[in-house]
UniProtKB/TrEMBL annotation:
SUPFAM superfamilies: lambda repressor-like DNA-binding domains, Periplasmic binding protein-like I. This is LacI family transcriptional regulator. Residues 5-61 form the HTH lacI-type domain. The keyword Ligase does not apply. Keywords: DNA-binding, Transcription, Transcription regulation.
Length: 344
C-alpha cells in the first residue's frame, strides 16, 4: 500500500464504518464497540501496520496519556528529585510526564495549567511553595477548577491553600527540630538566610526556627535575618550581606539547601572556613549534598517519595474533600555544624 496507512484504510480492510474503526482503536468516552467488531478492526490494523494518532485518541477519550508536572526550577535538585518520583509513579501507571518550569515566575503557573488543559493532560501536579499573593493564588485556583471540571485531576506539593489534594511538608516542625539540635550542639548566636518575604515555605521554616529558639530562651534578632532569593545565588548574596554587616554569628541556617551551598561558597570567597569560622545548615537534603565539603547539616525530606505520593493522589479516584498527605523532615547532623566547645 503506497503512502501512510490511514484509519479509513483500516475501516475498509475490516469492513466497518470509519466511526466504528475510530471507536475500536481510539476508544470513546461515550460509546463502545462490540467485542467481535473491535477484534476485527484491531486485526486489520495489525495487518496493515497502522499506528494510531495520539491526538485522535485524546479527542475520543477526553484525555491523553500524559501527566503534567509544573515546578519552579528544574535545575534545582529539590525539584528534580520530586520529578524523579513523579516519573517513576507515572511510568507504573502507563503515563508519560510533560515537565514545565516556571523559572520562579508565579504568574506562569496559571499559564502552564491552562496549556496542559488544552493539551488534555490526564492529571497535573504542581510542586513548589505558594506565595503570599492572594490574587495569583485565586487565578490559579480558577484555572485548576476549570481543568477539573473538564475531567482532569490535580495534586499539589506545598501549602494546602488551593483546594486540591496536597502533599504537605512539615516545614515549621523540621526547622524547629533543627534549631533544637543546633542548640544542643552548643550554638547560641544564630542567623537565618530567610528567602523572599512572601514565600510561604521560607516563611514557615523561619517561623519554626525562630519559635524554637524563643522556647529555648534565645532571641533571633531582626538584623540576623537576611532576605534573598530562594536560590543558590540568593544564598550567596545573602551570606555576603550577612558577613558585611559585621554580625557576630556562630551558625547560619539557610532555609533551603541550595541557598546553604551558595552561603558556603560566599564564606569561602570571604576567606572564611566552614565550620571553623562559621557553621552552616540547610533544609531538604538534596542529592547534590553528596559532593559538598564539608558535608552539610540539614533536614532530610524524602523528595522522591513525595513525588510518588503526589502522583498517587493525582491519579486516585475523586474525593469529596481535598486529601492531605503530611510528610515530616528528619534532622541530619553533619560536619558543617560540629559540636561547639562551651565558651568558644
Amino acid at each position: 500500500m503506497a503512502g501512510p496507512v490511514t484509519l479509513s484504510d483500516v475501516a475498509r480492510e475490516a469492513g466497518v464504518s470509519l466511526a466504528t474503526a475510530s471507536r475500536a482503536i481510539n476508544g470513546s468516552a461515550n460509546r463502545t464497540v462490540r467485542e467481535d467488531l473491535r477484534e476485527r478492526v484491531l486485526a486489520a490494523a495489525s495487518r496493515l501496520r497502522y499506528s494510531p494518532d495520539a491526538n485522535a485518541q485524546a479527542m475520543a477519550r477526553g484525555r491523553t496519556t500524559s501527566l503534567g508536572l509544573v515546578v519552579h526550577d528544574i535545575a534545582d535538585p529539590y525539584f528534580s528529585s520530586i520529578a524523579a518520583g513523579v516519573t517513576t509513579a507515572a511510568d507504573t501507571a502507563g503515563l508519560a510526564v510533560t515537565l514545565a518550569s516556571t523559572q520562579h515566575d508565579a504568574s506562569r503557573e496559571t499559564e502552564l495549567v491552562q496549556l496542559m488543559h488544552r493539551q488534555r493532560a490526564r492529571a497535573i501536579i504542581i510542586a513548589g511553595g505558594r506565595l503570599d499573593d492572594e490574587d495569583a493564588n485565586q487565578r490559579l485556583r480558577r484555572a485548576l477548577a476549570d481543568y477539573r471540571r473538564g475531567g482532569g485531576s490535580v495534586a499539589l506539593v506545598g501549602q494546602p491553600i488551593l483546594e486540591v489534594d496536597t502533599v504537605v511538608v512539615g516545614n515549621a516542625d523540621g526547622a524547629a527540630a533543627l534549631a533544637r539540635a543546633l542548640h544542643g550542639l552548643g550554638y547560641r548566636r544564630f542567623a537565618v538566610l530567610a528567602g523572599p518575604e512572601g514565600h510561604l515555605t521560607a516563611r514557615d521554616r523561619l517561623a519554626g526556627f525562630s519559635d524554637a529558639l524563643s522556647d529555648l530562651g534565645l532571641v533571633l534578632e531582626p538584623s540576623a535575618v537576611v532576605r534573598s532569593a530562594f536560590t543558590r545565588d540568593g544564598g550567596y548574596e545573602g551570606m555576603r550581606t550577612l558577613l558585611g554587616s559585621g554580625a557576630q554569628v556562630d551558625v547560619v541556617f539557610a532555609v533551603n539547601d541550595v541557598m546553604a551551598v551558595g552561603a558556603m561558597a560566599a564564606a569561602r570567597d570571604a576567606g572564611l572556613e566552614v565550620p571553623r569560622d562559621v557553621a552552616v545548615a540547610g533544609f531538604d537534603d538534596i542529592v547534590t549534598l553528596r559532593d559538598v565539603t564539608p558535608p552539610l547539616t540539614t533536614v532530610r525530606v524524602p523528595l522522591v517519595d513525595i513525588g510518588v505520593a503526589a502522583t498517587q493522589l493525582a491519579l486516585a479516584a475523586p474525593a469529596d474533600e481535598p486529601r492531605l498527605v503530611h510528610v515530616e523532615g528528619t534532622v541530619v547532623l553533619r560536619a558543617s555544624t560540629p559540636e561547639r566547645t562551651p565558651g568558644a
